[in-house]
Amino acid sequence: MISNPVLRFGLAANRLHHETYGAALFQWLEQSAAGIRELGMECYTVGRTFDAIERSGLLAGYGGLVRYPFGREGGLMKLVARVTDGGNGAESFDGAIYLIDPVDPSSIFPEALALKRQCITHGRPFVSTLMGAIEWVEIERLCAGLAPDPARAPLFDFSGQTLALIAHDALKDDMVAFADQHFEVLSRFAGRVGTGTTSGRLNELAWSRGWPKDTPWVQPYLSGPLGGDAQIAELVLERRCQRVIFFEDPHVARQHEADIQLLERAVRVVTDKAACIASPAVAHKWAGAVGPLKA
């Protein structure tokens, strides 16, 4: 265990992901339990998910596994409250890992939607897929100054991956600034896709940095309201896009909310093959951590 500040994460999983051995929760722990122990990461875990971990023995004897109530008793609601800054004298969470089954009705309960929204609002990771959960423990390890885990190297081999870059209107400038700051990292990907004006602005940035003028840095798709999110969702479902960085504005109502949710659901359908980042702060942390890794 390292001496950096204690990491605190909320943890939950829909029934599909903890009901049988070999489900996503157990696959995650098989690959990440050692990193969790090494970090001393505290996992505040909703009832059934906690019970499943206890039965598995994958975190046996680990004091950082903390039980929260069942979802029906408000466990997920309590996670939402702890993601926010301060209040009730309790330390805030550093993020949430919620392994979501997109066809489980509870995945769209108000507390589930609020957990994601508050993570975005406060610039904390909201991790909802198996690939994302495995990756994020490694990101925290790298940020803590630990040596890269060789077993995670395939996750960060971007030469065979495609990245989607999407931003809502109020955050398009943030996306351009992010791409400018981390241009070399993002250019490691085999391909990049984007929607509407965001892709146009990112291509202008790339060309200004010397990218060949006759080659788009980002392959443009339609704007979100016209179906671009759905087009990229299809790429995700076909395993032709592995990562989505989607700068969402949590403070405005969106008429094409269904399209946004469709893309998020697609990522969760292929839970072991895709990951999504939904805020600038988290994207910068991710890119800063993977930047020094060998391309």
TrEMBL record:
InterPro entries: Methylgl_synth, Methylglyoxal_synth_AS, MGS-like_dom_sf. Keywords: Lyase. GO terms for biological process: methylglyoxal biosynthetic process. GO terms for molecular function: methylglyoxal synthase activity. GO terms for cellular component: cytosol. PANTHER family: METHYLGLYOXAL SYNTHASE. This is Methylglyoxal synthase. It comes from Pollutimonas harenae.
